[in-house]
Amino acid sequence: MSHGKETPRQKMIGMMYLVLTSLLALNVSRSVLDAFTLVDEGLTQTTENFAKKNGSLYGEFASAYELNPKKVGEWKEKAEDVQKRAQELYDFMQECKKDIVIKSEGPETDAIRDGDVHLQFVKGKDNTSIPAEVMILNKKGDELKEKIDDYREFLLDMVEDKDTYASVVSSIESALSTEPPESSEHSKGEHLTWESENFEHLPLASVITILSKMQNDVKNSEAEILAYLLSQIDAGSFKFNKIDAVVTANSDYVFRGQEYKAKVFLAAYDSTKFPVVKLDNGKTLDIEEGKGIYMPPTNAIGTHTWGGTITLEGDDGVKIAKTFQSQYQVAEASAVVSPTKMNVFYRGVDNPVAISVSGVPSENIRATITKGNIQPSRGGWVVKPLKGPEGEVVTVKVYANIENNQRFMGSMDFRVKDVPDPVAEIRGRTQGGITLTELTRAKGVEAELKNFDFDLDFTVTDFTVSAVLSGGFTKSAKSTNNEFTPGQLEILSQLTPGKTLTVTDIKAIGPDGKSRVLNSIVFKIL
């Protein structure tokens, strides 16, 4: 496991593999065999990581080929050959693993799921005869060795300058070596073959793990040669594998008469080369430091879409052309003047608020309040403050979604007040002279909110009628709603001109549910 560039995880797995192999030579307990499951899982995960890495490398070949087929075609074909040969060898090793497990556990074994071998479900981990039967007697090991040798030489043949790329050669030779260690000797002093070294007289758990390690080496060598092939691509005019047209502007939203300036350029552009930027209307842009400069007039209000094609020619004469499109908005400059002392929210009612951001649709506007609730309603917004002291200040903040980014557009402070008390009255009057005829036509006491911007209804819940009647004694009667009771009507019927009628303890409830004590009413009977 010492070949190539290994991660700490790979080094740890390699060390565990060597330790477990050594322990097997000492005929240790079955728990050691179970430990191979951990090593095998680690090798499998590392192999999957290599597969993902290799997938990214093949993606780089595809991107480079799209940009420059003439230069990349040869190397892309070689990479595809590597991919095919690597997968064939990997699949054969997987086939060997499955043959061993099926031979040990039977064709219906739970250890093989979706084509993968799961060592933790193998019961006969300590079986030493079946791996040898499959790999030695049935010649699977010979076939595997031949395939590894062919794959190794196939990869090495691709490296033309082996001295310059000695590290690549060494890594591949080490990972795909089929020579047994010189220290491996038979009891009679004879050297073991590669096949015997890896598959004979070893427990099943060890052999499966060895095959997983070999699969890991196949993917590792695949990554090594792919990196080498990528390094050999002479992209000529383009030292990158992806080109996109990019439009940047100081702002996509400008006021009428304000300058709009945008830059059009290639991502990963070469500043020593000058692209040609041609708009859809046929106009060619001026170039500054490899970027086309677009400065249209901004007299017309509205949204304006523009685009074109940007073309760059490389050293080898190959031209890359990319189309692009963008837009900007032109709006009238606007200002909002608000009298700060009138910025008031009232508790207990829906406070309508108009919120807008010039040039931004209402659905792209978001508002918050520091204490209370604010939400869209009927084309506007409604604020409902929470309970608190009279005159406390809350802040409304406004945000706009511009180009998929939430931008803070400003804020405003508001004072919060309670709705003022209504005025208690009878027949629209609170004091002065009143005739018995007017008085008896009234049904009770009403509460009216005077000179207030909101049209709110209040309902009287209690009031007391008092009067000094003939004989000089005072008589009182209470109502628990807004209408005169029979007892109160009796008092009214006994009034004579010059007498005084007093209505006190008047209470009313409004939309906020708060009970309020209102003014008293005093009438002199005319």
Question: What is the strand and helix layout of this fold?
Answer:
Layout: H1 8-25, H2 30-67, H3 69-105, E1 112-113, E2 116-117, H4 129-137, H5 140-158, H6 166-175, H7 194-199, H8 204-231, E3 245-249, E4 253-255, E5 262-266, E6 276-279, E7 286-288, E8 291-294, E9 302-313, E10 319-331, E11 344-347, E12 351-353, E13 365-369, E14 372-377, E15 380-385, E16 393-402, E17 405-418, E18 423-425, E19 431-434, H9 436-441, E20 446-448, E21 459-468, E22 474-479, H10 486-493, E23 500-509, E24 515-517, E25 521-525
Parallel strand pairs: 4-10, 11-17, 19-25
Antiparallel strand pairs: 1-2, 3-5, 5-8, 6-9, 7-8, 9-10, 12-15, 13-16, 14-15, 16-17, 18-20, 21-22, 21-23, 23-24, 23-25
Helix pairs in contact: 1-2, 2-3, 2-8, 3-4, 3-5, 3-8, 6-8
Number of helices: 10
SS content category? alpha+beta
- Strand segment count: 25
Helix percent reads: 25-40%
Q: Rg from C-alpha positions?
A: 45 Å
Terminal CA distance reads: 116 Å
User: Overall pLDDT, averaged?
Assistant: 83
Strand content: 25-35%
Explain this structure.
By secondary structure, the chain is an alpha+beta fold. It folds into four domains: 8-231, no CATH class; 245-331, Sandwich (Immunoglobulin-like); 340-418, Immunoglobulin-like (Sandwich); 423-525, Immunoglobulin-like (Sandwich). 34% of the residues lie in helices and 28% in strands. It is built from ten helices and 25 strands. The chain has helices spanning 8-25, 30-67, 69-105, 129-137, 140-158, 166-175, 194-199, 204-231, 436-441, 486-493, and strands at 112-113, 116-117, 245-249, 253-255, 262-266, 276-279, 286-288, 291-294, 302-313, 319-331, 344-347, 351-353, 365-369, 372-377, 380-385, 393-402, 405-418, 423-425, 431-434, 446-448, 459-468, 474-479, 500-509, 515-517, 521-525. Strands 19, 21, 22, 23, 24 and 25 form a six-stranded mixed beta sheet that branches. A four-stranded antiparallel beta sheet has the order 3-5-8-7, with no helix packed on it. A hairpin with a 2-residue loop joins strand 16 (393-402) and strand 17. The longest helix has 38 residues, at 30-67. The protein starts with 7 loop residues before the first helix and ends with a strand. Residues 23-28 have low confidence and may be disordered.
